[in-house]
Every structure is written in structure tokens, then in C-alpha cells.
Design a protein that fits this description.
The protein has 286 residues and is an alpha/beta fold. It has two domains: 152 residues, Rossmann fold; 115 residues, no CATH class. It has nine helices and nine strands. Strands 2-3-1-4-5 form a five-stranded parallel β-sheet, with helices on both faces. Pfam families: PapZ_C, RapZ-like_N. Keywords: ATP-binding, GTP-binding, Nucleotide-binding.
Length: 286
């Protein structure tokens, strides 16, 4: 059985992720108490299910503290398991709750929403490093759906996945980044009126950047650093390594570099490329 476990902070997009998996043919269970996980998996295997997705979060109570041990037990039984942790910045969560007017599961009594979010983050801190960490703060729903599809398409049994992620510093540094490179010092296509509406995936922007010697030097320096240290991260038994490349707006320089690195590192690891500030190709509006 292929089991996808989803956890994370309330308001971070877990329902979106679960809906994507349900649409992809997974048997989905939301708000399962952690104590019942192994029982559920055993029952579904007996019934012949081959794909299952389960959301386990703070709504299930104190038993979520047992989740790390349960994941170890499931992996020891050679279950095909992927763990996805969704996160978002506090200000983003506050805004989302304000817009939806829903109650946070820990906002009980006279506890404020900010206090509830802080407590939840503290109680879930031990889960962040258990699997793949996605910061959904500046991510549109269609983009998150695409990222979840890419996540489940990777084979968790084949070692480290190397993820190159572009972002804009004016939107903040992604919470899920392991390595962060600042490329704001490079020539900016934004100041060319013709290139401004394009992205780093468009050929005119690529040609502009590759004509700049400092862009090539920065590109090669980052590639050399990641290449030199990649074996150490693999020896550390990591499942994912997220390399974030940031420019000012996350549209031109960082996008170009993330795309280039994605191609350059094919064959060294399983590679994914993400862009936080631009939509995936062929991604329509909601």
C-alpha cells in the first residue's frame, strides 16, 4: 500500500492536499486520531486498498505526540510511506482565519487566535523534520495542488529528492528552505520594459541573464556549492533537500536559476523545481 500522511498547522492547506489525493484515487481519511493509524492501515490492507491518504493534526488531541514512533513502526514494516507537513507564517494564518471566520481548534476559553497558533506550532515542532516540509504562505491554491501532485509522484524509496525553489524576498524567506541563496545583486530584467511582464522561463529573459558575466559566475558558484555538499546530505539519510533561490520579486532571476539548476542536477538525484511567485505552466485561475 502507498500511504500518504498529511499533517501541519491549522489553516495551512491540508484540506486542499487531501482533496487533490482523493481526486487522484486515494482513499482519504481526515482528522484521524494518531492512536488509530496502524489499525486503519491494517484494515485497509485487508480490504485491498492500494492507495490511502490520512490527515493527522492537532484536532486529534494529545496522541499526535506518538506519531513519530508510529511512522517508524510503519516504515519498519516496509510500507510505502510519504509524510507531508504543511506550514505557513503566523501572519498568513491570522489572515486566513480572519477571512474564513472559522475557529482555531486550540482557541478555547479566553485564548486568542495568536496564542492558539503559537501553541499549535510548538506542539507540532517535532513533526516538521519527519518528511517533506512545504510553506504555503505565498502559495496559491492551484500551485499547492500542483506541488502535492509532484510530491506523491516521487518514489520515497529511491533516496534524496533535490528541490530547487524560487521566491521573492519581498514576500519573505520560505519556511521550508534548507539552503537559501540571495541573487538580488544580479542585473534585474524588471527594469527592461519588454522583459518585465515575462518570467525567468521565457527565452528573452534567459538570453538577457546569460549575457551577464556575473549571472554565470553566481550560477556556477551555487551549483558548485550544492554539488560539493550533496553527498553529505545524502549520507545524512535525508528524503528532501530544498534549495531556495531568492530575488526581489521571485519572477525573473530566481526563476531562471531554479530552472537551470533543475536541469543541471538531473541524474545526481530526483529533482523537483518550484516557483513560489509564479503559477505552474497551464495552471488556470481559481
Amino acid at each position: 500500500m502507498h500511504l500518504v500522511l498529511i499533517s501541519g498547522l491549522s489553516g495551512s492547506g491540508k484540506s486542499i492536499a487531501l482533496n487533490v489525493l482523493e481526486d487522484s484515487g486515494y482513499y482519504c481519511v481526515d482528522n484521524l486520531p494518531s492512536l488509530l493509524l496502524q489499525q486503519l492501515v491494517g484494515q485497509l490492507e485487508l480490504q485491498g486498498y492500494d492507495k490511502c491518504a490520512v490527515a493527522i493534526d492537532i484536532r486529534g488531541g494529545e496522541s499526535i505526540a506518538m506519531l513519530p514512533q508510529q511512522l517508524d513502526a510503519l516504515r519498519a514494516n516496509e510500507l510505502d510511506l510519504q509524510f507531508l507537513f504543511l506550514d505557513a507564517k503566523n501572519e498568513t494564518l491570522l489572515k486566513r482565519y480572519s477571512e474564513t471566520r472559522r475557529r482555531h481548534p486550540l482557541a478555547l476559553g479566553d485564548r486568542t487566535l495568536s496564542e492558539a497558533i503559537a501553541e499549535e506550532r510548538q506542539r507540532l515542532e517535532a513533526l516538521i523534520e519527519l518528511g517533506h516540509h512545504i510553506d504555503t504562505s505565498d502559495v496559491k491554491p492551484n500551485t499547492l495542488r500542483e506541488w502535492v501532485r509532484h510530491f506523491v509522484a516521487t518514489d520515497p524509496g529511491q533516496g534524496l529528492t533535490l528541490l530547487f525553489e524560487s521566491f521573492g524576498f519581498k514576500h519573505g524567506i520560505p519556511l521550508d528552505a534548507d539552503l537559501v541563496f540571495d541573487v538580488r545583486c544580479l542585473p534585474n530584467p524588471h527594469y527592461d520594459a519588454v522583459l518585465r511582464p515575462m518570467s525567468g522561463r521565457d527565452l528573452p529573459v534567459v538570453e538577457f541573464l546569460e549575457a551577464q558575466p556575473e549571472v554565470l559566475r553566481m550560477r556556477d558558484d551555487i551549483a558548485r556549492f550544492v554539488s560539493d555538499w550533496l553527498p553529505a546530505y545524502i549520507r545524512d539519510s535525508r528524503n528532501y533537500l530544498t534549495v531556495a533561490i531568492g530575488c526581489t520579486g521571485g519572477q525573473h532571476r530566481s526563476v531562471y536559476l531554479a530552472e537551470w539548476f533543475g536541469r543541471a542536477f538531473l541524474g545526481r538525484a530526483r529533482v523537483l523545481v518550484r516557483h513560489r511567485q509564479i503559477l505552474p505552466p497551464n495552471s488556470g485561475a481559481l
